[in-house]
Amino acid sequence: MWERIREIVLKEFRQVFRHPRMRVMLFLPPLFQLIIFGYAVNLDVENVSIAWVDQDRTPASRELRAAFEGSGRMVVRALPGNEAEVQSLLDRGEVQAVVLINSGFARDIDRGRPTAVQILVDGTNSNTASLISSYASQIVLSYATKVAVVQQRTRLMAGLPPLNFNTPHVSVHSRVWFNPDLKSRNYFIPGVVTNIIMVVTVILTAMAIVREKEIGTMEQLMVTPIRPLELMIGKMIPFALIGLVDVVLVTAGALVIFQVPFRGSGLLLLVSSALFLLTSLGAGLFISTISQTQQQAMMSSFFFAAPTFMLSGFVFPIRNMPLAVQYFTYLNPLRYFIEIVRGIFLKGTGITILWPQMLALLIYGVTVMGLSTARFRKRFD
User: Fold this and answer.
1) How far apart (Å, rounded) are the C-alpha atoms in residues 295 and 312?
2) Which of 20, 191, 268, 290 is the most exposed place for a label (fewest CB within 10 A)?
3) Residue 304 and residue 206: Cα distance in Å, rounded?
4) For residue 53, what is the enclosing H or E element?
């Protein structure tokens, strides 16, 4: 039995690596996809273009503008003089936000009166608008706190009673774990790794078996002493090994190119990848049983990958989905694999924390592989 499986494995390797172009296609596209997704899928908001409308024109308003420009996130691109210019800038998308300082801004600050800074944000992209609004509010709050401290110190030095701002003296010190710089790239790239591995292994497995049907060699294999189970194992072992090599390659690319932190165990990552490969290879095997041509296999693979990708939590948080959809995501093995990979990369979690997800991958992998094997043997017979 094992000799026949070994011959099938060697045959598959020879067929895969026969053409120089195929050797390149097995390993370079996943790395290119990592680079493209790594740079494209980025929700960080930097270099925000803003317009500045200063109706006060005082040292206080200029100091606030300096705080915006010195934040490292905001860049003043325009100084509109009226409402029509503001509307035009937002309509054309030349700026993402407008900061409006009303006249009397400095006077109200000096007298301890409430004053406001108006911030108009382009809400076309709700996520970007939320971040810009938050950044701008933080800058204004920091400036207001600084001004209040200076005013109180000045009054105390002059022997005057302190101003009552009716605000509690509470200091907040926040600390972010696992991703202290709040880089969205650190969150997304581990998910990119999982999606690349899924797509590559599903397509390779489905295409390899369908190719045998298309060129007519499946009939030749049927008259040999090899059993259906042996053929299936021999077909999938090469692509499982290629999948694991791609895991190592793409992980190395994530660490070297994007400097994504890797705090966990590399061995645990490989073991988890092997568990996930049971599902992806099983899905590829199932697709091969329902496809007659390589084009059909390719289209079916993408039809399988699209909903799996959308419901994995890669881009869209599962907690924000409708409750019925949240329950449905528990049927998606990619959800568990993404949780494992992100936990290993960012949190350094081990098997004591990740064992439920690994157990779910094992159950789904065995189930999918078993069903696909039964259908494959039936079609083979």
Assistant:
1) 26
2) 20
3) 12
4) strand 48-54
Instruction: Check residue 47 and give its pLDDT.
Output: 83
| Cβ contact 348:264 at 8 Å | yes
CB atoms within 10 A of CB 48: 21
Rg (CA), the chain: 29
Q: CATH number of the domain at 48-157, out of 3.40.190.10, 3.40.50.360, 3.40.1710.10, 3.40.50.1820?
A: 3.40.1710.10
Q: What pLDDT is stored for residue 138 in this prediction? A: 86
| Domain residue ranges in the chain | 2-42+184-380, 48-157
Q: Are 247 and 193 in contact (CB under 8 A)?
A: yes
Q: Count the Cβ atoms, other than its own, within 10 Å of residue 224.
A: 12
Q: Within 10 Å of residue 374's Cβ, how many Cβ atoms? A: 12
Residue 48's contacts (CB-CB under 8 Å, 6 or more residues apart) are 73, 74, 75, 96, 97, 132, 135
Instruction: State which amino acid sits at residue 246.
Output: D
Residues of the chain under the 50 pLDDT cut: 166-172
pLDDT for 338 equals: 92
For 286-337, the pLDDT digits (tens) are 888 788 887 888 888 888 888 888 888 887 788 878 888 889 999 999 999 9
Element (H, E) at 11: helix 2-16
CB proximity list for 16: less than 8 A, separation 6 or greater? 22, 26, 208, 238, 242
Q: Which residue has the tokens 């895991």?
A: 247
β-bridge partners, 97: 50, 121
Question: What is the C-alpha end-to-end distance of the chain, expressed in Å?
Answer: 18
The DSSP result for 73-102, as a single string, is SEEEEE---SHHHHHHHHHHTS-SEEEEE-
Locate the DSSP E strands across 79-189.
Answer: 97-101, 117-121
